[in-house]
Every structure is written in structure tokens, then in C-alpha cells.
Amino acid sequence: MTSAELCIIIAIAVYLLGMLFIGFFYCKRNTSAGDFYLGGRKLGPVVVALSTEASDMSSWLLMGVPGLAYFFGIANAAWTVIGLALGTYLNWLIVAKRLRRYSAQLGAITIPDFFALRYRDKSGLIEGIAAVIIIIFFVPYTASGFAACGKLFTNIFNVEYLPAMIISAAVIVAYCAAGGFTAASVTSLIQSIVMTAALIVILVFGIHTAGGWSAVVENARALPGYLDLSHSTDVVSKQVSSYGFLSVVSTLAWGLGYFGMPHILNHFMAIEDGEKLKVSRRIGTVWVVISMAVAIIVGIVGYAMSNAGAIAPFNSASEAEAILVRISALLSKSGIVPAVLAGLVLAGILSSTMSTADAQLLASASGISHNILRGVFHIQLTNRQEMRIARITVFAVAVLGAVLAVNPESSVFGIVSFAWAGFGAAFGALMLFSLFWKRTNKYGALAGMLSGGISVFLWKYLVRPLGGSWDIYELLPAFIISSLFIVVVSLATAKPDEEITEEFKRI
Q: What is the pTM of this model?
């Protein structure tokens, strides 16, 4: 083992042990389901801001975005980032405060809870269907995170993918099951800092290695359409394709997903004081915009490094997702201090994955133990029993995610985009109508969830393959379909009870 590899191992080991320490530190502070799933609504504005955005970005930020920019130029990545930035800001601006106030008044600690209590649905249908949707889409989403960890260690140490992926998943499960939402949020706060440091280190080193900023720009300009927002360029075939209006609208639609992301919305519900969400909004939005912009630049810098012969070129978009890993390997060969910095970068990639996977595991576990067992089947559980079942379900969901992550060839970007569409379509429109339209009733809510979730599958696998004008990101049409079903079904059925309407007005 070389000294560089030893430094990287030490840096990553220290990081992982730190995450485990935090998890077990908060273990005894969870005395109820509300503590385990929502941190007792005691989080401060800075923790909420950075933990929310860290859990949002996932490995997509440090692997998906740079890989996309490297292989196709800035069009796809840039329009996606613009859509996400707008979605992030609007979610903080129009959803966060209302959801915090409404959920607290209702006593809701999960998103299925909120929908069921908002519409006084005692049948368990809304809560049960919402919980099933969370499980359906979060399991592959979590699997993409485990896969990212496995790819990371395989690329660094040339170890077998499967054991590397399983060990990574085990660490996430350990601190998540032990410390619950508070531990996940505090670790996500730290992880956002590590992710930021990783991007800065790679950016500075990459520009220097490529021959300076002017060399980076010259390499990008030499490839037709690479820096053009209206064209996409394949760096291998050098083929330039149009990135037209439909593609732009389709990509901007990523922003709609924010309104339905349970692991993001849960953070809004967890802040100690809803009035402090303005501070969280400013911090979170600035962090997201800067981080995503830097991630795109890293992809462009990586292309220049390949042209300069510093790193080997990538042959596919999936391979290009390992660009930070390859640059880190080069950095580690420059001495002890650079090797430690390389370890920091690799820990940053782990951070981006773990900060999302832990939030997703908790949301999935709450869907099973709190919403299905307690809410749908009305199984009476003590706080201790519910927390024990919650920890078991965290483990069970992680095992299922690990099974789906067995294939190392799966694309992080592809998996995340589908799960993102699922949540945005099933919950996004309904969340907005729940917070802004008093006429929405439980029948419209059910119709909106089901039509949105089903439409994602139908559009993805039946309509989109037709190509041409039908080749639109499934989130956009599914979101529109969900909205139409909510409005039409709500108006076609009885008005909500006066109690629900008055509660809506008051809150």
C-alpha cells in the first residue's frame, strides 16, 4: 500500500467514524416517534438549511452533474441546474412556512400523516397509498446512493464492487437507525461542508492541472456546441444535436419535483420556529446555486484535463460520473498533503450520498412503521415498540436497496431522475393544492396521487420512447395530469366539511 492510499484511507475512516459517533450520540435522545422521525421539531435554521440541501443533492451533485457536463457539454446540466435552483427557492418561499405551521397544528410528523390529517381521511387510504408511493420510489433512490458508494471504492482501491457497496450501506444504516432524524440532520450539516470543500479542492487543482483557466475555456470552445445552451455535444463521437425548446422546458421541469420530495419537506416541518425559515431559505438557496454551478465547471475542467493528457478520457456518460474520483487519484500522487485533500474529496462524495440515503431511509421507515402499521392497520404501539420497528424497517429498506444496487453499471443520474419524477408527480401538485386551495377534498387528493404516480410509469415506458415531441421528461406531463385530476375530481365531488375549511382559513 502506498503512502497516498494510506492517507486516503485514514481520511475516509476518520470521516466514517465521525458519522457513527454522531449517530450513537443522539441515540438516547430519541424518546418518541416524533423525535426519531422529525427531531422533535427542535432544529435551528442553519442546520435546517444545509441539512435540507445536502439531503437533496445526493451523489448527483458530485457525480451526476460533473459527468453530464463532461460528456455532453453545459446545455443539459445547466438547464437542469436552473430548474433545480428555481424549484429550491420557490419551495422555501411558498411551501416551507405554510407546511411547518399546518403540520404542527395537525400534529403530523410525516408527509402521509399530513395528507391524511389535512383531509380527515379515516379510511387509511390516503395515508396508506402515500406510504406505498414513498417506498416504491425511495428504495431505488436509496439504491442509487449505495451504488455510488460502491463505485467510489471500486475506483479508488480496485476492490470488489459488491462488498464495498455493502459496507458503505452498513455505515449509513448504523448511524441512521441509532440517531434518527436529528443524527441524520447533524451529519448532513457536516456533510454539506465536506461536499463544499471537495468541490473547491477539485476545481482549483483541476484548473491548475489543465494549464490554467484560459486552457479550460479554449478546450471547451474548440468542441462545437459544447458551451452552447441550445446544443448538446457527445465528446466521443463529436456529434452535435439540437437542444430545443421542448428539451429546455422538459429539463426545467426538474424544479417541480421539490414540492413533493418527502425527505426535503420533512426538514421544513422540523425547524424549531417557522419564522426562522427566511434565514434557512437564504442560506440554502445560496449554497445550492454556488455548489451546482461549481459542479458544472468541474465537468468542463475535467474535459480539459483529458485533452491535456492528465486523466484518461471517458467513453460513456455513466463512466464520466467517476470524474471526481479520477481527479482525486491524480491529486493523491502529488504528496502527503494532497493525498489527505484527495481523501477529503472522496469523503465529500461519500457525504453527498450518505446525506440523502439517511433521510430516505428514515422516510421509508416512517411509511412502514408509522403510517402503514399504525395509521392504516391501527396497530397500537408504545413509543419504544414503534422506535424498535422503525429501526428494523430502516434495516429492511436498506437491504432491499442493496439488492437493487447489485448492478454496478446502473447510472446514478438515470435512477435519480425517475425517482424524482415519481415524487414530484405523486406529491408535488397535491402539496401545493393542499396548502393553497381550500376546495381540495380527499377524493381529489387520492386521484391526484394515483394519477401522478401512474403517469410517471406510463410516460416513461410507453409514451416517451415514441420520441420526437413526446420525448419529454416524465415529471412535467405527470405533474400536469395530477393537477387536472385534483381539480376535476374535487369539483365533481362534495365540498370538504366546514371544519376542514375553517381550519384551512385559520392556519
A: 0.86
